[in-house]
Amino acid sequence: MKEGLAMHTKQLDPQQLQEIIDRSSFNRWLGMRVVAVDSQCITIKISWREELVSSPERQSTHGGVIAALVDCCADYVIARVIGHALPTLDLHIDYHRVAKPGDLYAKATVTHLGGTLGVAEAKVFDEQDRLIASGRGMYMVAAHTGKESQ
């Protein structure tokens, strides 16, 4: 595993991770679902629906939905290790192609996890496994209040 992960001993299972994701009404509205978890990566899915369109003429998925998917997947891959969601300190998104109607999948991995900060990378793919967007988020690991796991 990447640096710093050894000092964090929690490993949430997919159901526990989904419970953390579902705490956010925004995530529930987007329909975020954990579809895969392994030792270093998580995959989250959003099922496409008409409300996610930004341009009716192009039938493109709104960039904010894609950014939210990158942010959440990167956050929750770290949350899986430390046991709670984290505040985002910095987020960078690169858009590679227009997301047309169809489900989207984000895959994230931890690149750094220390006692204060965590960094993760996420990539968003369409149903044909084409790269739609990629990004990196930095999260405040030390911000745990104890209320996140309740």
Folded structure, characterized:
33% of the residues are buried. Helix 1 packs across helix 3 (63-82). 23% of the residues lie in helices and 35% in strands. Strand 6 (104-113) and strand 7 (117-125) form a beta hairpin. The protein contains three helices and eight strands. With 150 residues, it is of the alpha+beta class. Strands 1-2-6-7-8-5 form a six-stranded antiparallel sheet, with helices on one face. A two-stranded antiparallel ribbon has the order 3-4.
Alpha carbon gap, first and last residue? 28 Å
The main β sheet shows up as: 6 strands, antiparallel
Global morphology: globular
Order of helices and strands: HHEEEEHEEEE
Return the average pLDDT rounded to an integer.
Answer: 90
Question: Strand arrangement, largest sheet?
Answer: 1-2-6-7-8-5
Which regions are unreliable across 5 or more consecutive residues at pLDDT < 50? Answer: none
The percentage of residues in β strands lies in: 35-45%
* Count of runs of 4 or more consecutive helical residues: 3
Question: Which structural category do the helix and sheet elements fall into?
Answer: alpha+beta
Helical content, roughly? 10-25%
Beta-strand segment tally: 8
Radius of gyration: 15 Å
